[in-house]
C-alpha cells in the first residue's frame, strides 16, 4: 500500500465536519481551558509583589534612634533596616535617609533618593544644599527643589516622636508612585 | 579515516541531514556579497555563542543572591584561577556584541537589505537589537555593585513615572518594595533564561529567513526593487552568476570572527574584567553611579530633558523609536537600494552617529554634575589671590566654603555645571552679581538664606576681581547718572 492510498480516504471525505476534525478541535478547546486554569495561579504568582502591597502594605513604623543623634538645626544621615526583608538581602536592606531637625520640635525626614531618578543625594551643610551626583539635581535644606532636572522636592517620610526616639513610616523605595510621594514634601521654607 | 566516514554514513542514514547541510552550505549567493561588508551578521552570532559559553562558565561560580553576589564576583576575580579572564571575556564580549550588532544594522540599512522581501528579517533584527540591549542592561545588574544598585534605582524611578500603573511597575521590576534579593533573582532569571531563550529562537528565525530569502545582493545604483519582479531578478542573479556560499563567501566570515574573538580575548587580557565596583550597600552614599558605555548616551539625555517634558518623552520616545524601526520596511519597502542614491538614509545614519557620539562623550564627562569635592580638594589658583584686598580674599574663602567651586570652574578646575567664572566680572555688573548670588536663577540655587550680608559682600568683591588684566569689569552706565556724581561704583558704596 502506498502513501497516496493511505491518505486517499481523507481526500475524498465528504465535505462538512468529520469526526476526527471535530475531535481535534475539541482537544484544542480542552487545552485552551487548561491553559486558562493554569494561567490564573501563574499570573497571581507573578503579581505577588503588587498584591502584597495591596493587602498588607510594605510600610511600618520603625525607629531611627534617639533624638540626641539629631541636633537642632542640623541635618544628619540615618540608616534603618527595611521592615520587609529576606534573609539573603544582605546589606541591600539597609537604607539611608536624611533627618533634619528643624527646631527641636519639628523634623523632616528625607528619602535618600533624588526625586529625579533615584540616585543618592548628598547633604552639604556649608551651603545648606542637597546635591545629586547623577544629573546634578539640587535641593534646599527644606527639601524643596533648588535647581536641575528634578520635577519636585525630595520625598519625605511621615515621622513621629515616641519615648525620645524618632520613628518614621518607611518600607518602600521612594519613587514618584510610592507612599512617600504623597506626603507633602515641599513645606514652607524655614531658616 | 575510513572509520570516520563509516560513522558519518551511519549517522546520516538515521539523521538524513547531510544533504540538507550540503545544500545549505553551497547555496548560491550573489558574487559581490562575498565581501568584507557582509561579515558583521556572522560576527554578531560568534559573539553571542561566546557569551553563551562564558555565561555558563560564570554561572558555575556566581551566586545570584543580593547578600553574596558581590563576594562571589570577588572570588571569580581573585580566588579562582583565570576567573578574571572568563569575566573579562564575558564583559568585553558583551561590548563587542552590542557594537557589532549596531554596525550590522547600519550596514543592512545603508545596503537597503530591509526592503522587499526581507521586511520580516529586518523586524526580527530590531527585536534582536532590543534583546541585545536588554542583555547588556541586565548583565550590568548582575555585576552587583554600586553602579548596578543605583542603576536599578534609575530604572525603578523611570518605571514609577508610568501613569496609573507606575507603582505596580516598580514593584514588579524590583520584586518587592526595595532593591534587594528579589530584584537580583529576577534579573538573573531574565538575563540567564528568558532573554537568551528568546534570543536563540529569534536568531534561528533570522538565520532561516536569510537562507530562505537569500542574502541581500550588493546594491547597484539604478537597480530598483519592485515587488512584482524582484524575486525573479534575484533568482537570476544568484543562479546565473552566483557563487556557492561555501567556500566563496564564508572564508571572510570565518576570518573576521576569529579576528573578533582574538580582539575580545586581547581586551580581556590587557584591560581586564569590568569591576565589580564598590559594594552594593545603600548606606554608602559617597558614590557617583554611571551606566555602562552603551547606555551613557541615555544617561546624558536624562540630564538634559526639561522637567516638564521628561515623563512624556521617557514614556513615548522609546515607543516611537521602536515603531519607526519596525515600520521602516513598510514605508520604504521598494525602490533604490544603493546608499549612493539615498542621501536621507546616509544623513540619518550620520546624524544618529553624531548625536549618540556627542551624548556619549558628554556622559563620560558629566558636565551637568557638581564636582562633589571640588570645594575642599581644588584650591583657587594663586594668581587670583595675589595683590587682592583682605575683603576680596575673604570672598575667595566664601567661594570655597559655600561650595561654589563644585559647580563653577576657575582656571579650568572645578565643576562645569555652571559657567566658568574666570571672566565673570566682564559679563555681570556688581548689581547683577549680587542679584545672581542671592536670588539664583538660570539653574542656580538661591543663596540668599545661606549667606550673611557680610559674606555676600565679600564674595561679590572677589567675583568682581575675576577679569583679565587691562579689561575693566562691567559697569552699569546708568549707575552714575542715577546715584549722582558721588557714586563711584566701588564696593564701599554697598550697604
Instruction: Quote the beta fraction of chain B.
Output: under 5%
Estimate the global geometry of chain A from the Cα principal axes: elongated
Largest sheet of chain B: 2 strands, antiparallel
Strand proportion of chain A, as a percent range, falls in: 25-35%
Q: Calculate Rg of chain B over CA atoms.
A: 30 Å
> Biggest interface in this structure?
A-B, 60 and 70 residues
Main-sheet strand order of chain B equals: 1-3
Class per helix and strand makeup of chain B: mainly alpha
Unreliable stretches of chain A (pLDDT < 50, length at least 5) are 1-8, 185-191
Give the name of the CATH architecture of the largest domain in chain A.
Answer: 3-layer Sandwich
Order of helices and strands of chain A: HHHEEEEEEEEEEEH
Which percent bin holds the helix content of chain B? 55-70%
How many helices of chain B? 22
Compute the average pLDDT of chain B.
91
Name given to the CATH homologous superfamily of the largest domain in chain B: Cytochrome Bc1 Complex, Chain C
Name of the CATH homologous superfamily of the largest domain in chain A: Rieske [2Fe-2S] iron-sulphur domain
Element-by-element helix/strand order of chain B: HHEHHHHHHHEHEHHHHEHHHHEEHHHH
CATH architecture of the largest domain in chain B: Up-down Bundle
CATH class of the largest domain in chain B: Mainly Alpha
Q: What structural keywords apply?
A:
heterodimer; A: 191 residues; alpha+beta; Rieske Iron-sulfur Protein; 2 domains; four-stranded antiparallel β-sheet; elongated; disordered N terminus; disordered C terminus; B: 495 residues; mainly alpha; Cytochrome Bc1 Complex, Chain C; Cytochrome Bc1 Complex, Chain D, domain 2; two-stranded antiparallel sheet; 22 helices; 6 strands; 62% helix
Amino acid at each position: 500500500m502506498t502513501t497516496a492510498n493511505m491518505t486517499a480516504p481523507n481526500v475524498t471525505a465528504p465535505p462538512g465536519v468529520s469526526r476526527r476534525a471535530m475531535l481535534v478541535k475539541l482537544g484544542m478547546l480542552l487545552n485552551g481551558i487548561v491553559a486558562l486554569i493554569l494561567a490564573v495561579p501563574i499570573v497571581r504568582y507573578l503579581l505577588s509583589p503588587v498584591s502584597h502591597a495591596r493587602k498588607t502594605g510594605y510600610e511600618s513604623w520603625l525607629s531611627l534612634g534617639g533624638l540626641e543623634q539629631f541636633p537642632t538645626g542640623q541635618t544628619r544621615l540615618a540608616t534603618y533596616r527595611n521592615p520587609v526583608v529576606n534573609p539573603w538581602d544582605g546589606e541591600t536592606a539597609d537604607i539611608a535617609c536624611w533627618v533634619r531637625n528643624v527646631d527641636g520640635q519639628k523634623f523632616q525626614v528625607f528619602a535618600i533618593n533624588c526625586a529625579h531618578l533615584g540616585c543618592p543625594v548628598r547633604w552639604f551643610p556649608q551651603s545648606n544644599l542637597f546635591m545629586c551626583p547623577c544629573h546634578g539635581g539640587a535641593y534646599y535644606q527644606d527639601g524643596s527643589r533648588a535647581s536641575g532636572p528634578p520635577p519636585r522636592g525630595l520625598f519625605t517620610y511621615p515621622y513621629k516622636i515616641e519615648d525620645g526616639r524618632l520613628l518614621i513610616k518607611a518600607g518602600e523605595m521612594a519613587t514618584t508612585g510610592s507612599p512617600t510621594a504623597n506626603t507633602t514634601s515641599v513645606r514652607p521654607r524655614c531658616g | 579515516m575510513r572509520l570516520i566516514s563509516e560513522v558519518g554514513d551511519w549517522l546520516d542514514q538515521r539523521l538524513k541531514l547531510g544533504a540538507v547541510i550540503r545544500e545549505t552550505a553551497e547555496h548560491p549567493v550573489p558574487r559581490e556579497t562575498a565581501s568584507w561588508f557582509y561579515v558583521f551578521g556572522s560576527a554578531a552570532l560568534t559573539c553571542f555563542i561566546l557569551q553563551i559559553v562564558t555565561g555558563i562558565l560564570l554561572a558555575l561560580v556566581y551566586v545570584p543572591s543580593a547578600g553574596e553576589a558581590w563576594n562571589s564576583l570577588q572570588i571569580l576575580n581573585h580566588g579562582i584561577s583565570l576567573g578574571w579572564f572568563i569575566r573579562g571575556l564575558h564583559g568585553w564580549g558583551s561590548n563587542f556584541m552590542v557594537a557589532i550588532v549596531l554596525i550590522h544594522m547600519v550596514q543592512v540599512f545603508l545596503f537597503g537589505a530591509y526592503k522587499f522581501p526581507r521586511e520580516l528579517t529586518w523586524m526580527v533584527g530590531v527585536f534582536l537589537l532590543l534583546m541585545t540591549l536588554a542583555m547588556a542592561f541586565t548583565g550590568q545588574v548582575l555585576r552587583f555593585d554600586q553602579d548596578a544598585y543605583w542603576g536599578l534605582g534609575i530604572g525603578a524611578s523611570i518605571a514609577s513615572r508610568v501613569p496609573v500603573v507606575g507603582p505596580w511597575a516598580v514593584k514588579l521590576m524590583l520584586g518587592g518594595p526595595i532593591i534587594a534579593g528579589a530584584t537580583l533573582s529576577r534579573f538573573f532569571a531574565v538575563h540567564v533564561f528568558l532573554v537568551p531563550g528568546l534570543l536563540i529562537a529569534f536568531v534561528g528565525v533570522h538565520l532561516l529567513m536569510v537562507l530562505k530569502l537569500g542574502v541581500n545582493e550588493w546594491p547597484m545604483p539604478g537597480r530598483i526593487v519592485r515587488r512584482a519582479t524582484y524575486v525573479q531578478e534575484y533568482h537570476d542573479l544568484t543562479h546565473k552568476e552566483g557563487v556557492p556560499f561555501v567556500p566563496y563567501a564564508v572564508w571572510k566570515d570565518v576570518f573576521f570572527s576569529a579576528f573578533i574573538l582574538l580582539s575580545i580575548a586581547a581586551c580581556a587580557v590587557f584591560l581586564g574584567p569590568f569591576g565589580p565596583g564598590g559594594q552594593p550597600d545603600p548606606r554608602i552614599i559617597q558614590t557617583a553611579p554611571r551606566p555602562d558605555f552603551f547606555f551613557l548616551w541615555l544617561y546624558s539625555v536624562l540630564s538634559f530633558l526639561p522637567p516638564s517634558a521628561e515623563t512624556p518623552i521617557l514614556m513615548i520616545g522609546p515607543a516611537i523609536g521602536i515603531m519607526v524601526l519596525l515600520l521602516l520596511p513598510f514605508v520604504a519597502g521598494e525602490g533604490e537600494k544603493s546608499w549612493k542614491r539615498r542621501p536621507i538614509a546616509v544623513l540619518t545614519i550620520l546624524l544618529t552617529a553624531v548625536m549618540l557620539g556627542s551624548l556619549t562623550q558628554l556622559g563620560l564627562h558629566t558636565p551637568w554634575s557638581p564636582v562633589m569635592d571640588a570645594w575642599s580638594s581644588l584650591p583657587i589658583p594663586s594668581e587670583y589671590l595675589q595683590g587682592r584686598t583682605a575683603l576680596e580674599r575673604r570672598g575667595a574663602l566664601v567661594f570655597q566654603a559655600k561650595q561654589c567651586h563644585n559647580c563653577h570652574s576657575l582656571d579650568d578646575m572645578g565643576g562645569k555645571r555652571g559657567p566658568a567664572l574666570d571672566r565673570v566680572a566682564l559679563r555681570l555688573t556688581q548689581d547683577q552679581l549680587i542679584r545672581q548670588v542671592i536670588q539664583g536663577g538660570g539653574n542656580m540655587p538661591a543663596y540668599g538664606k545661606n549667606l550673611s550680608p557680610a559674606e555676600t559682600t565679600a564674595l561679590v568683591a572677589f567675583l568682581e576681581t575675576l577679569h583679565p588684566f587691562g579689561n575693566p569689569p562691567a559697569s552699569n552706565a546708568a549707575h552714575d547718572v542715577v546715584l549722582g556724581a558721588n557714586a563711584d561704583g566701588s564696593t564701599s558704596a554697598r550697604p
